[in-house]
Design a protein that fits this description.
mainly alpha, 7 helices, globular
Length: 138
């Protein structure tokens, strides 16, 4: 019973993140919102060094944490370290949909971090983000 409760709670928290992002983006397609969220999480993860990427992943709800780490190779050097590569990573994650502005998506996903994580956690995450990306944080 406890495992089912934990899973249901993880699913509910993830659905809340997606619903919140749907509202922020004013989109009605949950699948597209999910893709944008995961693409942004991966772009964020890939712009951080290994220790900071792990730190950020640990701050996410359980199910999102799994999606965040999906496909990650911690031995690889951080790669999306400039603004263009970061935003391109998001755009690729949404299949280069011309209706999607990756900068808007990035700003709104990062705003979710600000709204959902303790201030000290957000401050540390922002400090770990490459300087060229820091102005994407609210």
């Amino acid at each position: 019973m406890c495992a089912r409760h934990d899973f249901n709670n993880a699913l509910e928290v993830t659905q809340n993140w997606i619903s919140d992002l749907m509202w922020r983006l004013r989109w009605h397609d949950r699948e597209r919102v999910y893709q944008a969220l995961i693409a942004t999480l991966h772009a964020l993860r890939d712009c951080l060094d290994r220790d900071h990427a792990v730190y950020m992943g640990a701050r996410l709800p359980a199910l999102l944490r799994g999606f965040y780490y999906e496909g990650w190779n911690p031995g690889r050097r951080a790669n999306a370290r400039n603004r263009n590569s970061f935003l391109e990573r998001i755009h690729v994650g949404v299949q280069r949909d011309p209706a999607v502005d990756p900068e808007v998506v990035a700003r709104l996903v990062l705003a979710q971090f600000v709204d959902r994580l303790p201030r000290a956690e957000v401050k540390r995450a922002k400090a770990a983000t490459p300087r060229v990306l820091q102005n994407l944080w609210p």
